[in-house]
Amino acid sequence: MLGNWDDLRLFLAVAREQSLSGAGKILRLDPATLGRRMARVEKGLGAVLFVKSPTGYALTEAGVQLLERAEAAEQAMRVATAQVAEPSDRLRGQIRIGAPDGCANYLLPQVCARLIEANPELDIQIVALPRVFNLSRREADMAIGVSAPTAGRLVVQKITDYRLHLAASEAYLNSSAPIRTTADLQDHRLVGYIPDMIFDRELDYLTELGMTRVPLASNSVSVQVNMIRQGGGVGIVHDFCLHATPDVTRVLTSQVALSRAFYLIRHEDDRRNQRLSRFADELAQGIRTEVLKLEANT
């Protein structure tokens, strides 16, 4: 048997990260120490849980069976903790949100600042990464996405639509050929995503416009916005970003107007967690309000 909840927690981290080094970073444990703990767990169970190789730790059949039970126990612990927590009108504890960097840079800072102000005992961590988060591996408590996943044990709710337009810096527009139609874009430098690093088809804006060459590219929205601000060229910009870039102007607004949506994604096991559910509701409402306010000022 597993000795205690701490052993179970360590096992879950190694199983999800599939390496001692990856799990050690999360747990803040030396990999060698973690390896000894896992060896002790296997000895106590009388079963081999992992196949060790230079590429990592892969679960054996016994490990897969234990993982299912361990995740069930983890969820029961989360629910029990939420249910017996001291009653309060305020949220508390740590919550980690995964988000694409456009949302993470231009919406979540002010939304989360207001949540923290109303809930002083709440700790919010924003992980901004240009990729899809794996909630099953508990990389985050919840994630914001630009499309609704259709696979996995997930609960998905649409937060809000948002708008995007072509934009360029005033300095670039003043020194370049006029942009009157989309055909004129052929004579201008484009700023956008690195084509082979677009992690969601909803972000493939320029292909949608028939543009294939991107002289200035990044996998980060904030980097793209800064490229545009520095006169790098013309690119697709979220309307809600424009409040932070007063020297950037939308172009061809009547000809190019894109709409996308943000979705809040949670693991199905967290559906009964009242604390996370309340936070999710307040976060979604905060994002909706912020998008409406910022877009109204463009």
UniProtKB/TrEMBL annotation:
One annotated GO molecular function: sequence-specific DNA binding
Gene Ontology terms: biological process: DNA-templated transcription
Occurrences of domain HTH lysR-type (ranges): 1-60
UniProt keyword list: DNA-binding, Transcription, Transcription regulation
Family indicated by similarity: Belongs to the LysR transcriptional regulatory family.
Protein name according to UniProt: Transcriptional regulator, LysR family
Species per Swiss-Prot/TrEMBL record: Sulfitobacter marinus
